[in-house]
Amino acid sequence: MTPQENLNELPVAEQFSRRVILKVSKITKVEQHPEGTLLYILTLDTGDEEPRQIVSSIVPFYKPEELLNKNIVLVYNLKPANFRGVRSNGMLLAASDSNVADHETCEVLFAPQFEPGTILEPEGFEPPEEKLCYVKPDKFFAMPLYTKDGFVEVDGKKLTADGKYLTAEIYKNGSVG
After folding, report:
1. Residue 2 pLDDT more than 70?
2. What is the dihedral of CA 143, 67, 89, 169, to 10 degrees?
3. Which of 23, 124, 130, 170 lies most in the core, judged by the most C-beta atoms within 10 Å?
4. CA nearest to 42, candidates 22, 21, 72
5. 156 SS3 class
6. What is the predicted pLDDT for the residue at 36?
């Protein structure tokens, strides 16, 4: 059996902990994508020396001033992708209403209770000590995140750091992606 097959046999929360890095990041700049009416280009302070850039399709839901200087949760090690010629190095987490068609509802998961650079993990797990490789989007989405009673969870384990939890304000029982 390969190490990958062994990993796939673990509980989902443990797979998530071993594959995904969720890092709190502060939005320091919001720009409209020049080639995409639904896309923002966000510059982030992840706690690293260099800022990071992501592209996100949240224009219909948020004005730039509602995002600027807010802490969000970044899928830090998601495999980079290009969106209409602009490289995105990660993805922000947002909750949505599970009962509504895709891309009609969106709540960016703001994280004011955490400092930029904070790593969130499922309850009972510690952040990995070694640097994890990129996670492909299909692998990330195979380990579903969701909100339950306002808390963001994976496999029944709340996402946490420093004794605090990641929460949703609007879609308290929904999907996260």
Report:
1. no
2. -10
3. 23
4. 72
5. coil
6. 87
Please, is 13 exposed, middle or buried when counting C-beta atoms within 10 Å of its C-beta (0-12, 13-18, 19+)?
Answer: buried
- For 24, the token pair is 């709190």
Residue with tokens 């495999």: 79
- Backbone torsions φ then ψ of 175, nearest 5 degrees: -100, 160
Residue 173, helix vs strand vs coil: coil
Q: Are 124 and 37 in contact (CB under 8 A)?
A: no
Q: How many residues does the chain have?
A: 177
CA atoms within 13 A on the CB side of 86: 19
Distance CA 33, CA 52 (A): 16
What does the DSSP assignment read for 14-40?
Answer: HHHHHH--EEEEEEEEEEE-TT-TT-E
Q: What pLDDT band is residue 130 in, cutting at 50, 70 and 90?
A: confident
